[in-house]
Amino acid sequence: MTTVRFLPAAELELLREVAYYAKARNGTGVRFQAAVEAAVALVARHPLGGAPSFRETRSVLVKGFPFSVIYRASVQELLIVAVAPHRKDPGYWATRVAG
Known about the structure:
This protein is an alpha+beta fold.
């Protein structure tokens, strides 16, 4: 079984967005968190299923929200690099992973 680990910056992004959506509309924060968890569960089952991205990472869309989960998969671990909003500059998270 592959271990799932969030980089601290990715975890902070998730928590920040859950709080934002919770404040914006009742129940939306919970829906956003569940959608991110579903995306992570999908890539944990199919690590090569995400679209290839920068620096040996992959990305998968968060259903129903303008976000992608950026991750790097190995045999031992699924590393969540970013919970990236589509409105932000692509690749802003690239410095979080070594070349």
